[in-house]
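Field log, afternoon session.

UNIT: design team B
ACTIVITY: writing a sequence onto a fixed backbone
BACKBONE:
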C-alpha cells in the first residue's frame, strides 16, 4: 500500500506549483499515516517512510518545530522495528538535527549529533559514507566550538582533531583515493591546529573537572599537545604542498595553489613568532609565483597588502570588513615589515559604536599580519583603513 501512495505523491509533486505542492504533500503524508495507523497500529513498520516524507516536507516549508516530533517518532519506530542501532534511523536523525538547527536549538542538535555518530559508527563500517560522516561531525564540532556550547571547549577541539585524523586515515587507506580527497580533512586539521595554538592555557587550568586525577590528566594532555602543535601544523602544510604539486603535475590543477600553501607555511611560522622561517617560506612562494605566466597577478593576490593571520577558510583573525574605507566604525593603522600592528587610531566619530570600536581595536592590536612584499622584500604599510558597518 505504501508504494502506491508514494507513486501518487510523486505525481502531485510534478503537477502542482511549488507552494501548493508543499501543502498538498503534507496533507497527503498525513492521510497515508492515518491509513497505516488504522491498519497496523501506532508502531507499524510501514510508517517510517511517510513519517520521514512528512517531516522532510515540513522542514522544506520552514516548519522546523513541527518537523521535530515527526523525526523523533521516526527514530523511535526504527529502533523498535529494526534495532537500537539500525541504519534506518539515519535519515530521521539527520533531518531532526537540521530542524533543531533551523529553530536555533543548537544544544539539542549537538546532543543528537552525538547519538547520530554512535549509530553511524556501528552501521556504516569503514566506508566512504563513514568518512563523509566523520568530516560532517568535525565540521559541526567547529561550529559548536564557535557557538560556545561546551563547559570544556578544549575537549571539543580534541574531538574535532580526532575526527579529521580518522577521516584522513580512512581516505589514505583507500587505494582509489586521490590527492584532492586528502586535502579536505587536511584543511580542517589546519583550522583545528590554529584553534589549538590560540587556546588560552589559563582558561584550561580553570576548567572544572569531576576529580583531581581527571584534571591533572587533561592538563598533561593539553601541555603535550601545545608543545607538539607547531610541528604538527608545519608538517601538515608541507604535506598539503606536496599533494598540490602532484595535482598540478598530473591533473592540471591551478599552478598557483602550491605557492599559496608555501605562503600559508610562512603564515604558520610567523604566527608562532618564527620570523626567519616565515621569510624563507614566503620567498619560496614568491619564487614559484615568479615562474607562472600570470606571475604579477598571482603575486599581488598573496603579497600586495598585509593579511591578518590566521587567514584560512572558515577561520579569520578579524571580523569581515567592508570593501570601502567608510563605515560606522573606521580604524586606521600601520603594519611593520615584521607583521606587527602599530599607530592604531579610530577615525570615525560615531559615539553609538564606542564599545564595538574598542573591541575591534583591542582585537586588531593583538593580530599578527603577513606583511606586504615589494621587490621580493617585506615592507611596512601605513595608513591602512578598516571600515565596518555595525548591524
Amino acid at each position: 500500500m505504501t508504494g502506491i501512495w508514494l507513486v501518487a505523491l510523486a505525481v502531485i509533486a510534478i503537477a502542482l506549483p511549488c507552494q501548493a505542492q508543499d501543502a498538498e504533500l503534507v496533507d497527503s503524508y498525513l492521510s497515508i499515516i492515518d491509513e497505516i495507523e488504522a491498519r497496523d497500529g501506532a508502531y507499524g513498520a510501514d510508517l517510517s517512510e511517510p513519517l520521514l516524507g512528512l517531516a522532510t516536507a515540513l522542514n522544506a516549508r520552514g516548519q522546523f518545530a513541527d518537523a521535530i516530533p515527526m523525526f523523533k517518532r521516526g527514530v523511535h519506530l526504527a529502533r523498535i522495528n529494526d534495532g537500537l542501532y539500525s541504519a534506518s534511523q539515519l535519515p530521521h536523525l539527520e533531518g531532526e538535527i537540521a530542524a533543531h538547527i533551523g529553530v536555533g536549538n543548537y544544544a539539542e542538535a549537538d546532543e543528537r549529533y552525538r547519538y547520530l555518530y554512535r549509530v553511524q559508527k556501528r552501521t556504516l563500517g569503514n566506508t566512504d559514507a563513514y568518512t563523509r560522516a566523520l568530516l560532517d561531525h568535525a565540521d559541526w564540532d567547529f561550529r559548536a566550538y564557535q557557538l560556545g556550547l561546551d563547559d570544556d571547549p578544549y575537549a571539543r577541539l580534541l574531538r574535532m582533531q580526532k575526527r579529521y585524523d580518522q577521516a584522513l586515515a580512512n581516505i589514505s587507506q583507500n587505494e582509489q583515493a586521490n590527492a584532492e580527497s586528502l586535502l579536505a580533512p587536511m584543511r580542517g586539521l589546519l583550522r583545528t591546529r590554529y584553534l589549538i595554538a590560540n587556546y588560552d592555557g589559563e582558561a584550561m587550568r580553570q576548567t572544572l573537572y569531576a576529580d583531581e586525577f581527571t584534571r591533572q590528566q587533561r592538563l598533561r594532555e593539553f601541555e603535550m599537545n601545545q608543545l607538539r602543535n607547531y610541528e604538527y601544523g608545519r608538517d601538515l602544510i608541507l604535506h598539503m604542498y606536496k599533494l598540490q604539486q602532484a595535482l598540478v603535475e598530473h591533473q592540471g590543477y591551478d599552478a598557483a595553489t602550491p605557492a599559496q600553501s608555501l605562503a600559508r607555511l610562512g603564515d604558520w611560522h610567523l604566527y608562532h613568532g618564527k620570523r626567519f622561517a616565515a621569510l624563507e617560506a614566503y620567498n619560496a612562494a614568491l619564487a614559484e609565483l615568479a615562474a607562472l605566466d600570470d606571475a604579477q597577478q598571482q603575486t599581488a593576490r598573496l603579497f600586495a597588502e598585509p593579511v591578518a593571520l590566521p587567514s584560512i577558510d572558515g577561520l579569520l583573525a578579524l571580523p569581515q570588513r567592508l570593501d570601502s574605507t567608510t563605515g560606522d566604525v573606521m580604524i586606521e593603522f600601520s603594519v611593520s615589515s615584521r607583521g606587527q600592528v602599530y599607530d592604531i587610531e579610530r577615525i570615525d566619530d560615531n559615539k553609538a559604536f564606542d564599545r564595538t570600536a574598542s573591541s575591534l581595536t583591542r582585537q586588531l592590536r593583538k593580530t599578527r599580519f603577513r606583511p606586504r612584499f615589494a621587490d621580493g622584500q617585506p615592507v611596512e604599510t601605513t595608513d591602512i583603513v578598516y571600515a565596518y558597518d555595525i548591524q
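LOG NOTE: The CA atoms of residues 175 and 197 lie 33 Å apart.
NEXT ACTIVITY: expression trials, pending approval
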